[in-house]
Automatic annotation (TrEMBL):
Belongs to the terpene cyclase/mutase family. CDD domains: SQCY_1. Residues 17-301 form the Squalene cyclase N-terminal domain. Its EC number is 5.4.99.17. The keyword Signal does not apply. Pfam families: SQHop_cyclase_C, SQHop_cyclase_N. One of its GO terms (cellular component) is lipid droplet. This is Squalene--hopene cyclase. The gene is shc. It is an enzyme of class 5 (isomerase). Residues 312-628 form the Squalene cyclase C-terminal domain.
Length: 642
């Protein structure tokens, strides 16, 4: 028997009230909300390697990581980049290596399966660049097995084809301490665990290490240059190397970012710790203690299992939670005000970060993703927070909102789009260097970030920012896929990208009846599963149309539902079915989350994925509350920029 509309509405409102209470209950004493952020096996594995690089052991932590890794291993012996995904060679090499260090017998069935899987794919020599740097640090492969990255690049002028300011912030903070490790040919304190069994050809006999990541003629030129650099680099006098080494050291120390860490991301933090050790900093030095503490703060115990987060997401989680609670009608709740006050204190109004290299005259005004990361605020977080403050309506946030919008407008690229952290970061030829096999060296404009910026500027002051909005909308139209969808750079994938665009259009005064908007809505409708929900596997990053076997998820159903409502489909059967799916989907008993084990977040497409534990909390609540509001309105409208 199908419940009546009145019964469904009542049940929906009870759900909204219950999940609102649970989300508020998740709030920290100072007002903010933060959920776990989980990646794959590589980061806990790398932490085990870091301990041995430093000559340390921590039996309790290593036992916890061992349990975490074994729990995440696939039946075929490999480790995936995301739950349910295919095995990944580099992740599997690092997990096997870490387990062996942690004392797991190589002749156990789990290790035999992993080893056979690696060897069947060419062995550890075929692993990615960052894995090979790790292998070189422990003496498992010669340094010629890694791309040449001479520390002298620190002294290159800005006009040179390669300059450290021309790559993305995450690449910059990871690469600069690595330059020092490479220059010093650093060696771990404890290299006792051998990995010869993971190589098809003995590493000293291996002749083919580097690859052309882009497959272009430019990539072939860079490969040839890499050979030259490997030949020349050992002959560079140490005296000539001193100045760039000091420049790299200075950069890391100036950007160390207290206990939030270099770049506030694990790979950069770990490289910073190793660099400090190689440069002779004692364990008791303030720099080393601070750098170590930043890593400690990423640890998460789950029962008897331990993993490390790639970073933390308090500003993102708090900002998006605020939107969900505002949609649920909690505009004047003092707990919401406490959230926004916490966010207001986190705005970066004085510090001029690395983004000034291309926008020296723009005033700061952004928010970072993490607790503290003043050198690297991002426009995505900034737009989300500014829109929440503006919607709440308290005039005390006016300066926060105005400064945020001023900064967002100043960060627009000439293409009309926005990158996440810097404008004009589009030196695409650099994606052809051997170091860039991960395909994410740069931070070019993306659809999802651009949509958030368009939505924010449109919501706050569409007249003042009319030019920026128009350029942004044109960027979005140019980057629509043939089938009507949009690619999602920071969330999975086409559902995320399409939701991001559709929810910004109403505030930007786009006519929702235009063919390109209708095409997007039609595409979204076509993605609905038979159960009423929506799901898209991360395999869609490998090829459009893949990932169709993934079951419906709460976060992706919420995105699709809000995207359709934004496109004027509030009365459609698809939206009603999605709302019912969310109402009936299982939820966790003691958290604000719907049950969702799958990953729906993206770090770097094809390379690094994320499970935002908060996505299954605030997005389904947000979508359900929006549906309840719009379904009962005489003239339903989204009303806001996202």
């Amino acid at each position: 028997m199908i419940p009546s509309a009145a019964h469904q509405a009542q049940a929906r409102r009870e759900l909204i009230a219950e999940q609102t209470t649970r989300l508020f209950d998740f709030q920290q004493d100072d007002g903010h909300i933060v959920f776990e952020l989980e990646a794959d096996a590589t980061i806990p594995s790398e932490y085990v390697l870091l301990l041995r690089f430093l000559g340390e052991k921590n039996p309790e932590e290593e036992e916890g990581i061992k349990r975490y890794l074994l729990n995440d291993q696939k039946e075929d012996g490999s480790w995936p980049l995301f739950r349910g995904g295919a095995g990944d060679l580099s992740a599997t090499v690092k997990a096997y290596w870490a387990l062996k260090i942690c004392g797991v017998d190589p002749e156990t069935p789990e290790m035999i399966r992993a080893r056979d899987w690696v060897l069947a794919r060419g062995g550890a020599a075929r692993a990615n660049v960052f894995t090979r740097y790790a292998l070189a640090l422990f003496g498992h492969i010669p340094w010629r097995g890694t791309p040449a990255i001479p520390v002298e690049v620190m002294s290159l002028p800005k006009w040179f084809p390669f300059h450290i300011s021309k790559i993305a912030y995450w690449s910059r903070t990871v690469m600069i301490p690595l330059l020092v490790l490479y220059a010093k040919k650093a060696r771990a304190e404890d290299c006792s665990t051998q990995l010869t069994e993971l190589f098809v050809t003995p590493p000293e006999q291996e002749t083919k290490w580097q690859v052309n990541p882009s497959g272009t003629k430019v990539g072939s030129l860079f490969l040839a240059l890499d050979k030259v650099l490997h030949a020349v680099e050992p002959r560079v006098p140490e005296k000539l190397r001193e100045a760039p080494l000091r420049e790299a050291e200075r950069f890391v120390l100036e950007h160390l970012n207290g206990e939030d860490g270099l770049g506030a991301i694990y790979p950069a933090m770990a490289n910073a710790v190793m660099m400090l050790k190689v440069l002779g900093y004692s364990p008791d030095s303030e720099a080393m203690k601070t750098a170590r503490r930043s890593i400690d703060l990423l640890k998460v115990w789950r029962g008897d299992q331990l993993y490390l987060q790639p970073c933390v997401s308090p500003v993102w989680d708090t900002g998006l939670s605020a939107h969900a609670l505002l949609e649920a009608g909690e505009t004047q709740d003092p707990r919401l005000e406490k959230m926004l006050d916490w966010l207001a204190d986190k705005q970066i109004l004085e510090h001029r970060g690395d983004w000034i290299s291309r926008r020296p005259h723009v005033r700061p005004g952004g928010w970072a993703f993490q607790y503290e990361n003043p050198d690297y605020p991002d426009v995505d977080d900034t737009a989300v927070v500014a829109m929440a403050m503006h919607r709440q309506g308290d005039p005390k946030y006016k300066e926060n909102i105005d400064r945020a919008c001023e900064w967002i407008a100043g960060m627009q690229s000439s293409s009309g789009g926005w990158g996440a952290f810097e404008p004009e970061n589009e030196h695409f030829y650099l994606n052809s260097i051997p170091f860039a096999d991960h395909g994410a060296l740069l931070d070019p404009p993306t659809v999802d970030v651009t949509a958030r910026c368009v939505g924010c500027l449109s919501q706050v002051d569409k007249d003042l920012y009319a030019k920026e909005i128009a350029l942004g909308v044109e960027y979005l139209k140019r980057h629509q896929e043939e089938d009507g969808s949009w690619f999602g750079r920071w969330g999975s994938n086409y559902i995320y990208g399409t939701w991001s665009v559709l929810v910004c259009l109403e505030s930007a005064d786009v006519d929702l009846s235009e063919p390109w908007v209708r095409k997007a809505a039609s595409w979204l409708k076509g993605q609905q599963r038979a159960d009423g929900g929506f799901g898209e596997g991360l395999e869609s990053y490998e090829a459009a149309g893949r990932g169709g076997e993934q079951p419906s998820t709460a976060s992706q159903t919420a995105w699709a539902m809000m995207g359709l409502m934004a496109a004027g489909e509030i009365a459609s059967d698809e939206v009603a079915k999605a709302a019912e799916w969310l109402r009936n989907a299982p939820r966790e008993e003691e958290t604000p989350r719907w049950e969702e084990d799958l990953y729906t977040g993206t770090g770097f497409p094809k390379v690094f994925y994320l499970k935002y534990h908060g996505y299954a909390a605030f997005f389904p609540l947000w979508a359900t509350a929006r549906y309840d509001r719009m379904a009962s309105a005489n003239h339903p409208a989204q009303g806001w920029g996202m």
